[in-house]
Sequence to fold (1066 residues):
Amino acid sequence: MTSQIPETTQAAPTPGNGTAAPARLALRRVLIDTYHENVAYMHRDCDVYRAEGFKALSKVEVRANGTSILATLNVVDDQSIVACGELGLAKAAFAQMGVEDGHTVTVAQAEPPESIGALHRKLGGERLNLDDFKAIVQDIAEHHYSKIELTAFVVATNRDELDREEVYFLTEAMIGVGRHLNWHESLVVDKHCIGGIPGNRTSMLIVPIVAAHGMLCPKTSSRAITSPAGTADTMEVLANVQLPIDQLEDIVRAHRGCLAWGGTANLSPADDVLISVERPLSLDSPGQMVASILSKKISAGSSHLVLDIPIGPTAKVRSMPEAQRLRRLFEYVARRMKLSLDVVITDGRQPIGSGIGPVLEARDVMRVLENDPRAPIDLRQKALRLAGRLIECDPDVRGGDGFAIARDILDSGRALTKMNDIIRAQGSKGFDHNQPGLGALTFDIPAPRAGMVTGIDNIQLARIASLAGAPKVKQAGVDLFHKLGDEVQAGAPLYRVHASFGADLEFARQACKKSIGYAIGNVADMPHAFVEF
Amino acid sequence: MTSQIPETTQAAPTPGNGTAAPARLALRRVLIDTYHENVAYMHRDCDVYRAEGFKALSKVEVRANGTSILATLNVVDDQSIVACGELGLAKAAFAQMGVEDGHTVTVAQAEPPESIGALHRKLGGERLNLDDFKAIVQDIAEHHYSKIELTAFVVATNRDELDREEVYFLTEAMIGVGRHLNWHESLVVDKHCIGGIPGNRTSMLIVPIVAAHGMLCPKTSSRAITSPAGTADTMEVLANVQLPIDQLEDIVRAHRGCLAWGGTANLSPADDVLISVERPLSLDSPGQMVASILSKKISAGSSHLVLDIPIGPTAKVRSMPEAQRLRRLFEYVARRMKLSLDVVITDGRQPIGSGIGPVLEARDVMRVLENDPRAPIDLRQKALRLAGRLIECDPDVRGGDGFAIARDILDSGRALTKMNDIIRAQGSKGFDHNQPGLGALTFDIPAPRAGMVTGIDNIQLARIASLAGAPKVKQAGVDLFHKLGDEVQAGAPLYRVHASFGADLEFARQACKKSIGYAIGNVADMPHAFVEF
Fold:
C-alpha cells in the first residue's frame, strides 16, 4: 500500500496572506495538570475557533515573544474555564510559554513536523539515513510529535527493524540534540547495567572505589521507571541527587566522582520523551536500548564504559546467544562513536544483595563500604569485579591487577571515605544503616517446604516491592533472608515485606498469594550460570 | 529482549479487602470537549487522589449504577473546575455514564485491559490466534485501549506482520463485536472501492441500477476520512443520510436499496476506534484494509460483494503485482467468511467524473442518471460495468449480460426513478444539478503549455479540493475541464477551484502554486492502463 497524505498536511494553513494570518487571543493559565502533554483550551463560541476550522484534539501552534509550542486542543463550553477571546493552556504548556497571564498569543493550526515523511518511510519498512534520524529525533526532543506519532516510531523501530548502522545513526542523532559535558581529561570512566535485576546497586560502590583510585567518574543515573528503585532513588536516601549542572561539575572536580540524578543534565532529551511511550508498552528493544544508553554516556563525556549485561531465566536477557548478539551491537555502535567499551556478561539468576527498595538497598551499600559482617557478599564481589575492570582502563595498571586494587581500596576504608566525601558534597541526609527506619508494616513469607532455594523470580520480587510502595515510599520493599543454594526448613522465613501504608501492604500480600517468587527444590533443579561471574 | 511487566500491572489494585475498596466521589460534568477520549478531572487536594496514589495521565475506572468507564486522569488545582470530593468528567465521558450531575460514583485505578498480554506478544513478533484477536478487538471496541496501545496494535499489525490466517482472525473478531443486520434473503449485494480516487461516486449509480433490477442492495457508506468527499458526504447533498437503523431497514424493504451513512449502524465499532490512529499516521495496510472492509460488509448482511481496486501512479495501489496480492488476500478471507467476492481491478490513473467535492460530485451523478449530455462518460461507463458484474450475481442472468441490463435500466430512466424514490424515502434536500450553488469564490488553473494531458495527480487534486473546504463546505471543490488524453492550448483552463471562504481559497491557491497536479506532454508520455476497464 502507498501512504496517503495525512489530513494534517491538507489542513495546514500556509501563511503569507491577510486572511490566513494567525489569530490573536489573550493567554490564560488553566490549573489542570496534564503531565508531559501540552493541552490548549478554547471556547466553542470563540471567533477564532469558528473561523479557523479547528477541531477537538487537533494540534495547534501557540506563539508569543518568539517562543512557540505545540498543544492538543480541547474545546470548552464553560466561560469560567476559558472565555471567548482567551486561549487557555494547561500548567506544563503555560510554563513553557514564559509569559504572563493575559499576554497576547497567536494561535494557528500546527504544521505537521518536518520529519513525518521519514517516519512514514520507516512505517513502510524502509531504511533511514542519518539525516532522517536527526530530523526525527529533533522533532521528538522539541515535543513536536503526538503520542500516536511517538508510539509509531517506537514500534516501527522495535525488534530487528533497525540494522546496526541505523542504531548508530539513532545514537548519533540523540547525542546531537542534548547537552554535552566536557571534563577536559582523556580518561573519563563510567559503568552501566542494562537493568532488570533488583537490588543491583553496584554503581554506588564502584564510583567511590574508582574515584578513590583517582579516576574521573561523573556518574549520572536514572530514577526507577518500572523497577522498585533506580540508583538515583537509592542514592537519594543518603544525599541530595538533584543537582544543578554547575554544582555537579564542581563536585566531580573536587572529588573525582558523583552519584547524581541525570534528569537535570538534559543529556538525551529525546530519550526522556520516548520513555513516556516505551514504559506503558514495556518495550525495550536492542536498538533502542543501545541508542539510549550510549547516547547518554557519550553526552556525559565518558571515554571508557564498563557495561553489565545480566543473564538469567527472569532477567532481561535470557540466553547466552541473545547476550552475545546484544554485546556485538553495543560494541559496533561504541566503536563508531569512539567510545572504549568493555561488556561484562554477569549472573542475573536472582536479585543482588539482600534488600529491594531504596532504604534497604542503601543499607546494603553502606554495609559493604563499612566492611560490616552483615554486608551481602554477592553485592561486594560483583562491585569489586566491575570496579577492577574499570581500574584496568588506567594505563598504569596491568591487566588482571584491577580486582586486587579495588579490594584494597574497599578493605582499607578509602572507598568509604570517598563515599562520605561525595555524600557531604551533594548534601547529606544523615542516613544510618543501623537504624534504617524501614516501613513498620510487615509480613514474612515462609518456605512452603524444606529444601534448597533453586529459583528466585526477579520480576515477581520487583513487583512485590513495587506494590509495597517502592520507590515512592523509600522505606518500603523486600528484605531477602535466603538466596540461591541456601538450604531452608519448611516454614523458615524466606523474605520480609515492608510497607508504610496498609493498602500497599495488602497489594503486596495479594501478589505473594499469586506467587511467592521462590522455588524450593534440590540441587539438580538449580539453573546453571554460564557467565564470567 | 524480554518484556518486563508494565507499570500499570504493578500499580493495579487488587480488590477484596477494606483498605483497597474504591473511593466515592460526587460526579460533576466538566464542559470540556475531549472528542473521543475519556478524560476525568480530580482536585489535587482531594483525599482520594492523595490516598490512592493516582498520577496525572494514569487510567482510572469510574463506576455508577452498574455502568463503568475508563478515563485518563487530569489533576486540577482550581476548585471552580472540580472541588475536593468531586470527580469531573469531560462531556463524552459524562454522557457514557448515564447518570445526573452530583450522582455518587466510585473511582479506582483501572486494571490493564485483559488482552494486553496478547498485544505484547504481537509486539514481540509472535503469531496470534483467534482468541487473542477476539480479546484485543473487544477491548478496543469497549475503549479500554489508550492511544499508545491502539497505535502499538496498528503498527505491529502493519505491512506483512499479519499472515492471511491472522487477517481472517482479525476480520472474524471485528464482526464479533458489532451489530449484525439480517435481511432474510439469500442474495444481498454490495459494492465497495478501496478508495483513493477523487470523484469516484459509482455507488450512487450502482445502487439505483441494481435495486431497479430487483436486487437487495442496502448500501452504507463512510464520510470522508482524509479525502474531499465520501459517498455519505455526497449523498447528503441530495438526501438525509443519518438514519436510525429501523428506518434504514424500512427503506430497504420498500425500495430494495438505500444510500446511508454507516456510522449509526455500529457494524464494526472496533474499526471506528482504530481509524482514530490510522488516519493521523496515514496507515492503510493490506491486512487492516481487508479486515475493515469485509467485517463491515458481512455485518451488514451482504452475501455478494463487488470490490473495486483502482491502479495508477497516484492511486493507493500502484502496480499490478501489488493489486494481485491484495486481491488474493481479499479472496482468501472472503472465502473463509463464506462471502461471494468479485474483485475488479480498474483504471486509477486519474479522478473519475468531472467534479471533486460533495456538490460537484452530486451534480455529476444526477447528470448520469438523467442521461444529460453533460454527464461524465467515464463515471457512467465505470458504474455500468460494476453494476453489470453485480447483476450477474442474479442466478437468472447469463454471464456477460449484466452490462447490457444495467445500461437498459439507466437509459430507460428506471435508475433515475429508483434514485428519486430512495432520495424521497431518506428525506430529500431538493438538490437541482442545474443550479448546484457552487462556492462563489473561484479561480481557474490554465494549461502551462500546449499539448496532451498526460497525467492527473489524484493526491494533489484531492488536497486542493480539501484545502478549498470540501467536504465540510459542501459547495467547495474542484471542477475538472480536461482529462487524460485531451489536447489543450497553452492558457486553456484545466480546472476551476470553488470555495465559500476567502481563507480556504487562499490555501487552495498556495497548494496550486506548489503543483497544479496536471502534466502536459505528448501521447508517448501517457501512462498505460493494464486493467479490465
About this structure: Confidence is low (pLDDT under 50) at residues 1-20 of chain A. The longest strand of chain A covers residues 67-76. The domain at 7-109 of chain A is CATH 2.40.40.20 (Barwin-like endoglucanases). Chain A touches chain B through 85 residues (CB under 8 Å).
